[in-house]
Design brief:
The protein has 261 residues and is of the alpha+beta class. It has a domain of 176 residues: Ribonuclease T2-like (Ribonuclease Rh, Chain A). Helix content is 32%, strand content 17%. The chain has nine helices and seven strands; from the N terminus they run H-E-H-E-H-H-H-H-H-H-E-H-E-E-E-E. Strands 1, 2, 4, 5 and 6 form a five-stranded antiparallel sheet that branches. A two-stranded antiparallel sheet has the order 3-7. A hairpin with a 5-residue loop joins strand 4 and strand 5. Helix 8 crosses helix 9. The chain is globular and about 50 Å long. The structure holds guanosine-5'-monophosphate. The site of guanosine-5'-monophosphate has 12 residues, from strand 2 and helix 6. Guanosine-5'-monophosphate binds next to strand 2 and helix 6. Keywords: Disulfide bond, Signal. This is Ribonuclease 1.
Length: 261
């Protein structure tokens, strides 16, 4: 009997504890330039019903992040349980050799976790804004709601916010600065021929928003480097921008393009 009790206690200690606040350090608000998503070899599609989004940076996600990668068994409770109990590939990739650099799937990774599924009801008053500011460009699934659900499940469940606040705050943060306008103020405008020094792009964002952001580049179908995503750093309440505490490894070369969309 004692053995059974000990086993049950051990099992419960390994299960994710949804009442425990995630202890991440900051958020990344990640916005993608649609021109740089679409002109790659894989191409892009426009969301069902909504058509071509406007030529503006669109939200990719609001991601809780650690300031320093943590060892695989650093966290007790949820983190350890996920490492031990059937972690999925993405989670294992996040754990990687460097340790775990961000929390993810805090409500569990499986499809059966109904309690952590995003419901259209949760964001009913935000759907129009989300459609404009957070459109999917994927050809695999052209329903933006599926993109939001995926982001909620993978990142939002670790945010210590409820679904409505998670999406509302991401929208409010994006509203503060129109990144395309910030770049245009510095003379960085979409072009399929011009290239810009990446430092000028970085400085323009720091000057225009007041905070240093990280940049991610990808390559167009001809292999040329272009600005793909801007990672702005945000406090733990998802209310205010902060300077990014961490530089990111980057594929940005000295000069980058901002392709027309
Ligand atoms: P994450 O980078 O948040 O871990 O994963 C993004 C996932 O969302 C990928 O599976 C990707 O296929 C899907 N996705 C759907 N729409 C988009 C989009 O517009 N941009 C990006 N980057 N990913 C998208």
């Amino acid at each position: 009997m004692k053995l059974v009790t000990a086993f049950v206690v051990l099992l419960f200690s390994l299960l994710p504890d949804s009442s425990t606040a995630e202890d991440f350090d900051f958020f990344y608000l990640v916005q993608q330039w649609p021109g740089s998503f679409c002109d790659t070899r894989q191409g892009c599609c426009f969301p069902d019903g909504a058509g071509k989004p406007e030529a503006a940076f669109g939200i990719h996600g609001l991601w809780p992040n650690y300031a320093k990668c943590r060892g695989r068994h650093h966290r007790e409770g949820g983190g350890l349980a996920r490492a031990v109990l059937g972690a999925d590939d993405a989670f294992l990739a996040a754990v990687g050799r460097r340790g775990k650099c961000w929390p993810e799937y805090c409500g569990g990774g499986g499809d059966g976790d109904g309690g952590h599924q995003l419901s259209p009801w949760d964001v009913r008053d935000l759907v129009a804004s989300l459609g404009r500011s957070w459109p999917t460009l994927s050809c695999k699934n052209r329903r933006s709601f599926e993109f939001w659900s995926y982001e909620w499940k993978k990142h939002g469940t670790c945010s210590n916010l409820d679904p409505h606040d998670y999406f509302a705050r991401a929208l409010q943060l994006r509203e503060r600065h129109d990144l395309a306008a910030v770049l245009a103020d510095a003379g960085i405008v979409p072009s399929d021929t011009d290239t810009y020094p990446v430092d000028r792009v970085r400085d323009a964002i720091a000057q225009g928003t007041g905070f240093v952001a990280n940049l991610e580049c990808n390559r167009d179908a001809d292999g040329e480097a272009q600005l793909f995503q801007v990672y702005q750093c945000v406090d733990r309440e998802a209310k205010d921008l902060i300077d990014c505490p961490l530089p990111m490894p980057t594929k940005c070369t000295d000069r980058v393009k901002l392709p027309v969309f």
